């Protein structure tokens, strides 16, 4: 049970389709080790910089905001970009499909993009309503029925669904 859950988490995080064979597992381990070392060194460096800023300015709020911002930016853009680049470079994300199964793979990719778009759109709609509720203290029911929140969620869902659908379609590789 734990091994299958671990495999599912690895495949989901690295966006691997198909079986997780020895080559893919060794590359995932290498990427994960490099990422762990990179994140550790960055955290040590940014905490040291935040402490220097706090000591120099005597403003702990500024140091905390710099620390949080730098960690978020580094984790999302640098570490996430590194994982995506390496996974693409070593062809971990390729969806190899036989010639007769290509049509089925295209339909599955479009369905997956549609599902991602629906989930993302609903999530953004709920987060937008929650953010408005927390900042304005308006009626939660009124916010759920607000047309701008609904349109925002729909547009986010469409954009995300189309984008992920295109990515899934581009990952399909024909094999003979």
UniProtKB/TrEMBL annotation:
Keywords: Membrane, Transmembrane, Transmembrane helix. Pfam families: DUF3278. The keyword Transmembrane applies. The chain crosses the membrane at residues 34-53, 65-85, 106-127, 150-170. InterPro entries: DUF3278. This is DUF3278 domain-containing protein. The lineage of its organism: Bacteria, Bacillati, Bacillota, Bacilli, Lactobacillales.
């Amino acid at each position: 049970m734990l091994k299958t859950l671990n495999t599912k988490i690895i495949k989901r995080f690295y966006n691997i389709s198909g079986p997780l064979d020895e080559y893919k597992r060794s590359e995932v381990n290498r990427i994960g080790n490099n990422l762990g070392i990179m994140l550790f060194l960055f955290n040590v460096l940014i905490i040291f910089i935040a402490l220097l800023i706090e000591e120099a300015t005597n403003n702990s709020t500024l140091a905390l905001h710099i620390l949080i911002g730098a960690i978020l930016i580094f984790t999302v853009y640098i570490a996430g970009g590194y994982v995506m680049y390496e996974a693409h470079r070593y062809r971990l994300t390729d969806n190899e499909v036989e010639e007769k199964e290509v049509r089925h793979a295209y339909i599955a990719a479009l369905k997956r993009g549609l599902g991602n778009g629906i989930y993302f759109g609903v999530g953004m709609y709920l987060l937008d309503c929650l953010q408005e509720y927390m900042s304005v203290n308006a009626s939660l029911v009124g916010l759920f029925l607000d047309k701008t929140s609904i349109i925002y969620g729909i547009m986010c869902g469409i954009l995300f669904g189309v984008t992920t659908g295109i990515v899934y379609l581009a990952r399909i590789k024909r094999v003979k």
